[in-house]
Design brief:
The chain is of the alpha/beta class. It has two domains: 29-115, 3-Layer(aba) Sandwich (Rossmann fold); 140-271, 3-Layer(aba) Sandwich (Rossmann fold). 39% of the residues lie in helices and 16% in strands. The protein is built from ten helices and eleven strands. The protein has helices spanning 8-28, 44-60, 75-87, 106-112, 124-131, 140-151, 171-178, 199-203, 255-259, 273-291, and strands spanning 4-5, 34-40, 63-69, 93-96, 160-164, 188-192, 208-211, 229-232, 236-239, 247-250, 264-265. β5, α7 and β6 (188-192) form a beta-alpha-beta unit. The model has no long low-confidence stretch (mean pLDDT 96).
């Protein structure tokens, strides 16, 4: 018998059902949660992602606003758009889709977003709040991983979580969240990365291994201890002549060899992917509840 598969689609359905009742309660009290996404340029992956966010908003009964700017838009034009959306009371969540064109100062844009609307949780004020254990929002992908573990009944208290990767979007916040006190956390956390001296030696210590390296097949079966829980955050396109598109999506984990050792594993695609938009929607609903005075 193979390992248990932890599927983002299944976990997200439970969360969406909770969100729908929160959205209905807000709407009954006169607030429709609004999410605005600003897209600069025509990066194909970003366009797909933004469309998916818009569709999910509409499915849930939220208001979706997409602002498209040309790839050569000036920094000042983007900043002005962010200021307008900050000031619009019908917009509760605001994000600027990354990556931005090279001539735009990404940090300045993130700093310009009102922290109360920063549903990506990229603003330093929100990153700081997360680190001290008093989050306004949690970053969507790591929050999705945490929900996958919690809702699959995987005990994290006292367990050794090894996070492979140290990006500001996944690795660092994941480590910070799992070391907090409370449900779904209370873990002993090690962060490893491409410069770790004996990576396999570190990953073999993990009860729960979260991999976000951005490199296909970085983790193989010999790097995982028997019975570990493995969450693969990677999404990499690799050539595949047998596929109609000539490529396929794989994670950072070599699924075949690792699943022979793991007690539970998230596949790619179908694992963490669906959770990112789900947790983003959850953040937008939370922002609307705060704005409406439902929660502090």
């Amino acid at each position: 018998m193979g390992p248990r598969l932890i599927l983002g689609k299944d976990v997200s359905e439970g969360i969406y059902s909770e969100l729908r009742s929160r959205i209905s309660a807000l709407a009954a009290a006169g607030t429709v949660p609004g999410l605005a996404v600003v897209l600069v340029g025509d990066d194909p992956a970003s366009q797909v992602y933004v469309r998916m966010k818009g569709r999910k908003c509409e499915e849930l009964g939220m208001r979706s606003v997409t602002v498209k700017l040309p790839g050569d838009a000036a920094q000042a034009e983007l900043m002005e758009k962010v200021r307008e959306l900050n000031a619009d009371p019908s917009i509760h969540g605001l994000l600027v889709q990354l990556p931005l064109p090279p001539h735009i100062d990404e940090d300045a844009v993130i700093l310009a977003i009102d922290p109360a609307k920063d549903v990506d949780c990229f603003h330093p004020a929100n990153v700081g709040r997360m680190l001290i254990g008093k989050p306004a929002f949690l970053p969507a992908t790591p929050a999705g991983v945490q929900q996958m573990l919690a809702r699959s009944g995987i005990e994290t208290r006292g367990r050794h979580v090894v996070v492979v990767g140290r990006s500001n979007i996944v690795g660092k916040p994941m480590a910070a969240m799992m070391m907090q006190k409370g449900e779904g956390a209370d873990s002993t956390v090690t962060v490893a990365h491409s410069r770790t001296a004996d990576l396999a030696g570190v990953t073999r210590q993990a009860d729960i291994l979260v991999v976000a390296m951005g490199r296909p097949s970085s983790i193989t079966g010999d790097m995982v201890k028997e019975g570990a829980v493995v969450i693969d955050v990677g999404t990499n396109r690799v050539p595949d002549p047998s596929s109609p598109k000539g490529e396929r999506l794989v994670g950072d984990v070599e699924f075949e060899s690792v699943s022979a050792k793991a007690s539970a594993i998230s596949p790619v695609p179908g694992g963490v992917g669906p959770m990112t938009i789900c947790m983003l929607m959850a953040n937008a609903v939370t922002a609307a509840e705060r704005a409406a005075g439902v929660i502090q």
